[in-house]
Amino acid sequence: MANTYTAITKQVGDWWIGWIEEVPGINCQEKTREGLLESLKITLKEGLELNRQEAVQAAVSEYTEVPVTV
User: Fold this and answer.
1) Tens digits of per-residue pLDDT, 7-24?
2) If you ran DSSP here, which 8-state letter would residue 51 be given?
3) Whole-number pLDDT of residue 66
4) How far apart are the C-alpha atoms of 40 and 9, rounded to whole Å?
């Protein structure tokens, strides 16, 4: 199942900077807008997986996972 997130992008001088609106800490900087969007996508995937791993480790044992849709 694919989720959609919002990338905020902005050109500052020779660089493109951006971040994912819905997920704190996911931000990148690249020379092109296309490169920025690709870096944001990769960083978002990695960040979500890291958050998932940390959540499971924090639960230690005897937990359940329940999908929540908003």
Assistant:
1) 999 999 999 999 999 999
2) H
3) 96
4) 10
Q: Which residue has the tokens 């902005």?
A: 10
SS (H, E, C) 3-40: CCCCEEEEEECCEEEEEECCCCCCEEEECCHHHHHHHH
Q: Is residue 69 part of a domain?
A: no
Structural domain includes residue 64: no
Asked if residue 35 belongs to a domain, the reply is yes
Our measurement of the distance from residue 58's CA atom to the centroid of its chain's CA atoms, rounded to an integer in Å, reads 20
Range of the domain at 34: 7-58
Number of domains in the chain: 1
